[in-house]
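BUG-600 | component: ligand-complex export | severity: low

The export step for GCB jobs runs without errors, but we want the raw record kept on the ticket for reference. Input record follows.
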Amino acid sequence: MLRPQDTPTRETKILDGLWAFRLDRDGVGDGQGWFRGPLPEAGKMAVPASFNDLMTDAADREFHGDIWYQRSVRIPRRWDAERISLYVSSATHRARVWVDGTYLGSHEGGYLPFELDLGETARPGAEVLVTICVNNTLTFQSIPPGVTEDGVQRYFHDFFNYAGLDRSVLLTATPRERIEDITVVTDIDGPDGLVRASVEAAGEGPLRAVLRDVEGAEVARENGRELELRVPAAHLWAPGDGYLYELTLQLLAPGSDAADDRAAVVDEYRQDVGIRTVEVRGTEFLINGEPFAFTGFGMHEDHAIDGKQHNDALMLRDRAMIDWIGATSVRTSHYPYSEEFMDHADRTGLVVIDETPAVGLNMGLGGGIFGSQGYTTFSPETCNDETQANHAQVIRDLVARDKNRPSVVLWSIANEPESETAAAEEYFRPLFEVAREADPTRTVGFVNVMMAPHGRCRVSAMADVIMLNRYYGWYINTGDLVAAEKGFRAELEAWAGDGKPIIITEYGADTVPGLHQLVPQPWSEEYQIAYMEMCSRVFDGIDAVVGEQVWNFADFMTTSGIMRVGDNKKGVFTRDREPKAVAHWLRTRWTEKLPIAAKG
Ligand code: GCB
């Protein structure tokens, strides 16, 4: 599946705006056929947006079940020879779709796009009724998992279950004979760049590929479905330098000569290409053969009112702060971020650890890090073969969406799953194979939890890079930074013995903005700085530590509970994106002093 775009042969129509909307509180929508005609007793809902914080009633905000969206759309009359489809950028956590009452299909899993062909229901010139029933219920088989107990939805991850159509919905027209998929892999050969591309196309005609630089000058050209383009003296994509070439692919009319510039173009698609390599060598993580130091954050797509909606303005502001503080990288904790965010990362040279929505596969953890959930994680009744199959599909879908992005250097296939048991080892072994088969070119890992330290974790051996979330000085040794430093160093030294690069993907302390203490205690701004100083001393002393990503970029919404006051306050910025004192401290470290940057 290719992402929709406008080219001389392709067109898109964005369906953002107010849609008819109804929460199916009594579960009667299917029985009453709400997809057959105008949605009865409907209100309005913004698309894109998470619906939750637009509600004023607690039960509505927390609603779990079927959520119906509907709008009419006129199919442009000029689309009469085209394949018309609906592209849903994300429907959290699953969706079923009808057009004019005809069922088109469904998709399992949020945060990733799907496309459905309108087939016979597409009548150019006519207005059609699009109905999308989103369902946000989490079960032991969904990714992420959850369970309904006495009618109440529980889940095992520490962020609010925002849901709905939180990214754009598009109507698209593509030629019936068309380019269907592109896989780009790049390499470096001396001063030259190599761009290898495999193209899948439905159509008999020849395929022409032209690569241009940012000025639009042609740098390479080749014909065929398996391409290797050589770029003399290539401008590489590198951290902080998101240089992108543009590959224009043209499927030509059958029988035409690809060398003939006047040959009829049946379909055209443009693909951004960043030329770079990624490799792990010993304890180093290399980009273009140079050791790279990850600084930055685990983040969330999270804002007041619109929840997980993608919003260009808010994204740009977040990115401005990431750059201001001197961060080189982010992890898309704990699910794939919007395609617009990823485009911007590609364009600006932000390095991304791309994570699946597999968070909370660990019944030994509470809604954060404490306590047990009272279930066995991997069992026929809980996370089972069906969960694993969904997890595998999500990995394939994520790779399919982001495989051509130069910003993505490492796949994270799960956050803090149970990893210390034989059942976990059995669950994860095939999933690593799925990831490596889907993308043999990038590194693969998962994020390890404190309860599975070195020597106990049975999954880390499968990973190319060790990613660790650690809270010495917060969840353990709370307030005792001396003991925390000792414990943290000892553990990292043990991991370093494995000879792989280590990225600390989470470390952080909840901090109430404005709470000041001369003698720093947990929750104060001073403690957050003292805590970071302690962690930094530990990282700087261990060569294998090639990355530090603070938890979290900004305060973010969670479920209610005794562990959180209003929201999770581990942000370096507040939820409304103002700096806590630690932001200035980190800025100095990341822009002026960082020894791990000097390692690079
Ligand atoms: C973690 C989780 C993250 C939580 C964080 C916390 O280990 O990966 O989702 O939000 O701890 O603040 O407890």
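Assignee comment: Attached the raw record above. The two ends are 37 Å apart (CA to CA).
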